[in-house]
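Treating backbone geometry as a discrete language has practical consequences that deserve illustration. No coordinates are needed to read the tokens, only the vocabulary itself. For completeness, the protein is quoted in full, as a sequence line and a line of structure tokens:
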Amino acid sequence: MLDAKRITSHAVFAAMSALVLMAPVRLPAAESASPYTVQQTWTIGGEGGWDYLTVDSTARLLYIARGPRVQIVNLQTGKLAGEIAGFQGTHGIALDASGKSGYISDGRGNRVAVFDRATRKVTATIATGKNPDGILYEPKTGRVLAFNGGSKDVTVIDTHTNKVVATIALPGRPEFPQADGKGTVFVNLEDTSQIARIDAATAKVTATWPIAPGEEPSGMAIDAAHDRLFSVCSNKKMIVVDATSGKVVATPTIGGGPDAAGFDAAGSVVFSSNGEGTLTILSQKSPNDYETLQTLATKPGARTMAVDRATGKVYLVSADFGPRPASTPENPRPRPAILPHSFVVLVVGR
């Protein structure tokens, strides 16, 4: 560091000041931290597949959508704390800002279920479009948005009345949504390789942005402070988009078979969970500059995850699988059977 008291030349001081002002702003140096590891593996068991994960950082709980139920894991003990059952096919869980209510998208039931987070009892059900998948709570409007993959639209729910107040048509099949906390919602459109921007108050699509060279985006994360969206794509690309202009600003490489993205604001680190059995960890050098910090071996099938904003830990889930069945004309890409009671949560940290 320079000691200004020892600089006697005004010209030198001015030159050095100009260099400082011209230097790019750099975010915290994640690369100096210790590597990430799989710190714990919690055996949860139970049968069936899984989808989205949601962390309640305050209550220290992890919600996991698992077929006809939602499992709730205590993050302090790694044990199953309870289940909410009675669904046809769960996909996602959204939590309101009050800490009182939660919302579950029941895809095959074409509905959203409202539950009391204290009692874990369903208190209401709300009809939606076809196959609600991704779901989120938008804090500025107090609305829940359920993204319907089958009907390619969004069901907008007023959480004060638990009534549908709007349906928003989309130009493609929605996948993972994110909210910026200021009234704007973004969602990947998987079949058109785009991002749609939605005004939650007016319930209107305000922009649609192509994300080439990304293809078939699934998971999305957001850095709301720097207006950056992170979409993970099937062609092993993470597409970083300026959330104010829709411009693609970076395209770092990730692993194969991604389904979720995550962002740790405190560490300036971006994650992609990949079905091949890796977690791609990227260092955010600046809002437009990303470098691979680490490729961590996890477990095959661990393609969905959630990041705990309170601790920076990453939670992934997977199981053991049997042999893959032979392809048929009706099912050209069959999935291997999940072995009973092999379901686990992986806890990643540093």
